[in-house]
Specification:
By secondary structure, the chain is an alpha+beta fold. The protein is built from 6 helices and 9 strands; from the N terminus they run H-H-H-H-E-H-E-E-E-E-E-E-E-H-E.
């Protein structure tokens, strides 16, 4: 029984294979005949009206396809330029932020340059955005993805403009503060200059006062002395002789010439060396208990024991010797 089934199954397979072989041979024959017929008729088809119309439609479709590719490339380029500008704006914003941290007053020129660059990028973006929208509308694009891209770029531009306005507002605030500080500094500088002028005037006044004091002190501490014989003193005009038939005495002249005396500092002068003399007499008026004469070896000295009292009556000391 099993053997019979196996024989029938083998027989069925053989019939199926034989049938498929015949079909394949028939298809090859038809293909060969078709290829021969196509080759035989090619020369006449290329010149036919139908072929030429089909070729024209194909060329038109190719041209349209090529044009669309060019438009797409141009749109993509415009989008890329806008995105590049937005990236540049973002980078410049970061630079401005860092410069602000360093101090607006010291980085003003760099910040102003970056702000000018940002404004230029944004102006370019506006122009490119308008051109992109017009191009998309003109090309009749109904691409949802493209419209979303354009809407996204417009939103980014609007957001950037808002950020730039806020940033410029902050910069203007800093400019105002810097201006106020400069005014304050200028005002303080003016106050300092005024104070310095006042101090300078006071200093000059003090210098003049000091000069006056020194002059007065010099005047108060300056004394004049001279000594000589009666004849010598009379000849230089520092003494005069007065009296009657009973006798004459030496007196100090009313008008004295300082050049005929030796100028001294009364505070530091403690003695006057008169030299080898026999007689000595003070003609000028000095309190007796403020001085005395002494001898050292054979030389005579006038010793001043109390300079304030000695010079209290006159600043001229005249000693007559012999």
């Amino acid at each position: 029984m099993d053997y019979a089934i196996e024989v029938d199954f083998v027989h069925l397979i053989c019939e199926t294979v034989l049938h498929l072989t015949i079909k394949i041979l028939q298809m090859k024959k038809l293909l060969f005949v078709g290829i021969a017929a196509l080759a035989f008729s090619c020369g006449s088809v290329e010149n036919s009206k139908e072929y030429k119309e089909l070729q024209a439609k194909y060329d038109s479709i190719s041209a349209v396809s090529s044009g669309k590719s060019s438009e797409n490339a141009e749109l993509a380029k415009m989008i890329e330029e806008i995105e590049t500008n937005l990236d540049s704006v973002a980078k410049d914003q970061m630079v401005v932020s860092e410069l602000n941290k360093e101090g607006y007053a010291t980085q003003k020129e760099k910040i102003d340059a970056k702000i000018a660059g940002i404004n230029s990028y944004m102006e370019q973006n506006k122009a490119k955005m308008e051109a992109l929208e017009k191009k998309a509308k003109k090309s009749g694009k109904a691409n949802t993805a493209l419209q979303k891209m354009i809407a996204s770029l417009k939103k980014q531009i609007v957001d950037k403009e808002a950020q730039i306005v806020e940033m410029q507002s902050t910069i203007q605030g800093l400019e105002v503060k810097v201006g106020e500080l400069n005014q304050t500094v200028a005002s303080k500088d003016q106050e300092i200059a005024t104070k310095n002028d006042e101090i300078s005037k006071k200093d000059n006044e003090l210098v003049e006062r000091q000069k006056t004091i020194e002059s007065k002190e010099t005047e108060l501490t300056t004394g004049y002395f001279t000594f000589g014989t009666r004849k010598e003193l009379a000849e230089i005009g520092v003494i005069k002789r007065e009296g009657n038939f009973l006798g004459k005495i030496s007196k100090v002249s009313e008008k004295l010439d300082n050049s005929k005396f030796k100028k001294v500092n009364i505070k530091s002068l403690s003695e006057i060396k008169l030299g080898l003399i026999k007689k000595k007499k003070i003609v000028s008026a000095h309190p007796e208990n403020s001085y005395y004469f002494t001898t050292s070896g054979e030389e005579v000295f006038l010793k001043i024991s109390d300079y304030a009292k000695f010079w209290s009556l006159t600043k001229y000391c005249i000693v007559e010797i012999d």
